[in-house]
Amino acid sequence: MDHRPPHPSHRQVGEPRLPLLAVPFALIAAVTVVDVLAPPDVHLGPFLVAAPALTASFAGPRMTGFVGAVAVAAQVTVAVVRTTATDLNHTFQIIALVLISIFVTLFAHLREVHEKQLTQLRSVAEAAQEVVLRPLRDRMGPLRLASVYLAAEAEAQIGGDLYAATRTPHGTRLIVGDVRGKGLEAVGDAALVLGAFRAAAHQEADLPTLVAYLEAAVAADPDGADSADEPADDPGEAFTTAAVLDIPDREMTVRLISCGHPPPLLLRGGRVIPLEVDHPAPPLGLTRYVDTGFAPQSFSFEPGDMILLYTDGVIEARDAEGTFYPLPERAADWPGDGPDALLRHLCTDLLAHSPGGSLGDDAAMVAIERVTGA
Predict the structure, then answer these.
(1) Measuring CA to CA, how many Å separate 80 from each of 34, 88, 90, 98, 348?
(2) Residue 83 near residue 94, CB atoms below 8 Å
(3) What residues have CB less than 8 Å from 10, skipping those under 6 apart?
(4) Cβ distance 150 to 349 under 8 Å?
(5) What is the separation of C-alpha 293 from the centre of its chain, rounded to a whole number of angstroms?
(6) Which of 341-360 are b and which e, b meaning 16 or more Cβ less than 10 Å from the residue's Cβ?
(7) How confident is the model at residue 286 (pLDDT cuts 50, 70, 90)?
(8) Range with the lowest mean pLDDT among 11-25, 41-55, 217-231?
(9) Which residues contact 303 (CB under 8 A, 6 or more apart)?
(10) 3-state secondary structure of 285
(11) What is the phi-psi region of residue 136: left when phi exceeds 0, alpha when psi lies from -120 to 50, beta otherwise?
């Protein structure tokens, strides 16, 4: 089952927060009353500037301009009651208030335009990401699977976390990875990796050949040039960490190639065992700088075992004191009731660990359980 909690809905850009609107109007009323009752040599009119300035911090330009107009009207009222609207002191106060109200209204307009652009970009990124990260099937051969994608807080950019699974004639192949960077560019790079994986996972005979194919896809020059002959302007800027797994149907093993990705966790009988490979490969896109091969390593994977794949957004989540999320320890607390229950347990615990229940980076997890030997 694929869990994809909906991203929190965004407040309509420029929509005023009604309870807050009482503050600038109360300020205008209080300053006006006190200024009228104050001694002749005491002038509180300058404090009215705070009303439109405060409104601009949470409302749109129309409401900001309206509050500014009310503040100006209040200042004129004070001038008429105390002396006259043409009094030099009050005239300069009115002029200053008008100018400042215009400026803060302009700033509110610019902020609103910027928020609309950010909202649109994030909506496009979220839509693209939903297309890229297709839901995993609940059952693939002798495996039960579950996946979850947790979006970061609304102000953070969409990340390039990725995962996919595909069947082969002899088993199941999976990938989990994390593209360096944020935003639509990262989503595009994730789509490139996933497209290459889905195209080749069921065709390539062995795991090293598959990973070499993924590396070639990531390292390829966008204009079609050979990146080995024509290196990019910023070498090393674009790369993807990935863990690629091959799980045979009739062998109680899992073969793993790790390309700079955090090690999967094997849950067995209440124990949590990191699947650390002896010879990890560099991240995809960087192998041309390092003379290395793609050597798979085999680990035992028996019926009843669970493998947890995850991205660094999980283990790098911090609590209020800056402590990283202790994934192995929390996974060990799982009571054991299938991959869905494991991910629900970890998601609840991860969000409780993060201040305000908001992650600073997107996070993805995939749980795989072998239920039969055939």
Answers:
(1) 15, 12, 9, 17, 61
(2) no
(3) 119, 154
(4) no
(5) 32
(6) ebbbbbbebbbebbeeebbe
(7) confident
(8) 217-231
(9) 142, 252, 370, 371, 372, 373
(10) coil
(11) beta
Give backbone dihedrals phi and psi of 149, rounded to 5 degrees, phi first.
-125, 120
Cα–Cα distances in angstroms (integers) from residue 293 to residues 123, 215, 255, 284, 290, in the given order: 39, 11, 15, 12, 9
CA–CA gap between residue 333 and residue 180 (Å, rounded): 31
Over residues 243-265, the pLDDT tens digits come to 999 999 999 999 999 999 999 99
Q: Can you list the pairs that 267-272 forms with residues at least 24 positions away whose Cβ atoms lie under 8 Å?
A: 267/305, 267/306, 267/307, 267/308, 267/331, 267/332, 267/334, 267/342, 268/302, 268/304, 268/305, 268/306, 270/332, 270/336, 271/332, 272/328, 272/329, 272/331, 272/332
286: Cα within 13 Å, side-chain hemisphere: 15
Cα–Cα distance between 207 and 246 in angstroms, integer? Answer: 7
What b/e sequence results for 164-194 when a residue is b if at least 16 CB atoms lie within 10 Å of its CB, and e otherwise? bbbebeebbbbbbbbbbbbebebbebbbbbb
CA separation, residue 49 to residues 57, 89, 328 (Å): 13, 16, 55
CA distance 173 to 169: 11
- CA 174 to CA 172: how far, in whole Å? 7
3-class secondary-structure state, position 247:
strand
